[in-house]
Amino acid sequence: MISFTKMQGIGNDFVMIDALSDGLPKGDLAELSRKMNDRRFGIGGDGLIFLEKGEKAPFKMRMFNPDGSESEMCGNGIRCFARLLKAHGHIAADSFDCETGAGILTLNLIGNKVRVDMGLARLSRGEIPMSGLADEQFIDRPVDDLYRGTAVSMGNPHLVIFVDDVSSVKLEEIGPKLEHHPLFPRRTNVHFVQVIDRKTLKMRTWERGAGITLACGTGACSVAVSAFLNGHSERSVQVQLPGGNLEIEYLESGKVMMTGPAETVFEGEWVLN
């Protein structure tokens, strides 16, 4: 039996396992993620997240996508991670550092919300990563014959495309093609964005390894950065996602701050087959 907590951050839902208390499950974690995240034969979720002890910080977040691939970072997931650490008594303070595949991040709990210092937005092709010259940026550049896009890494790769109406985008058709675009050797998350005004953005997401999701925290950060770089917005914006809203601030230092909610849905036990 594996104890788990089901959590969600503006509709981005996760199966959370507290390895600090119970240890890591034995066996293939990628296969476990595929089974637990299955919405018909499993618990259902956009990812499987482990609470672990860090080597470079007190705690470490590790996440697997529903297809079994391991993700470097997840913005909505890390807010759930913070709330669960507090709920399980692993932290007393409301501010702490966490190790992720995107580096060490600082988290602050504020009521039912979590404010996360997401670190620097990375803009060079080599950092994202993309094919092409490593030190070159990809801002408002042709992706194919239909779209122009901007690429940003928040520890994981993102492609942001601005459109007049996000509801008209056939995301289920376009998303997988762009996820596997030759420009991105490790695939990419894909976001279509509508500018409501200079402080409000509306987005829809195709997540790498997960498909269409109600929210993407690192994606919202990349969208805010892209909107500012393309002259569409101020540095502080509200990003509207199908599952709810996030407050994103792109600081002059290049760092990105994300604030949003996270909550527990239910707890249970997974029976090993």
Characterise this structure.
- By secondary structure, the chain is α+β, with helices and mostly antiparallel strands.
- The protein has two domains: 2-119 and 261-270, Roll (Diaminopimelate Epimerase, Chain A, domain 1), CATH 3.10.310; 122-253, Diaminopimelate Epimerase, Chain A, domain 1 (Roll).
- It has five helices and 18 strands.
- It has helices spanning 19-22, 29-36, 75-87, 171-179, 217-229; strands at residues 2-9, 12-18, 48-53, 59-64, 70-71, 95-100, 103-110, 113-120, 141-142, 148-153, 157-162, 189-197, 200-207, 211-213, 236-241, 244-250, 255-261, 263-270.
- Strand 1 (2-9) and strand 2 form a beta hairpin.
- The termini are close together.
List the main descriptive attributes of the protein structure presented here.
17% helix; Diaminopimelate Epimerase, Chain A, domain 1; alpha+beta; 18-stranded mixed β-sheet; 273 residues; 2 domains
Number of domains in the coordinates? Answer: 2
**Strand composition percent:** 35-45%
Instruction: Sketch the major β-sheet.
Output: 18 strands, mixed
Rg, please?
18 Å
Low-confidence runs of at least 5 consecutive residues: none
Tally of helical runs: 5
Order of helices and strands: EEHHEEEHEEEEEEHEEEHEEEE
User: What is the CATH class designation of the largest domain?
Assistant: Alpha Beta
Indicate the overall shape. Answer: globular
Structural class: alpha+beta
CATH superfamily of the largest domain: Diaminopimelate Epimerase, Chain A, domain 1
The assigned CATH architecture of the largest domain is: Roll
CATH topology of the largest domain: Diaminopimelate Epimerase, Chain A, domain 1
Percent of residues in helices comes to: 10-25%
Number of strands: 18
Amino-to-carboxy terminus distance: 9 Å
Average pLDDT over all residues:
96
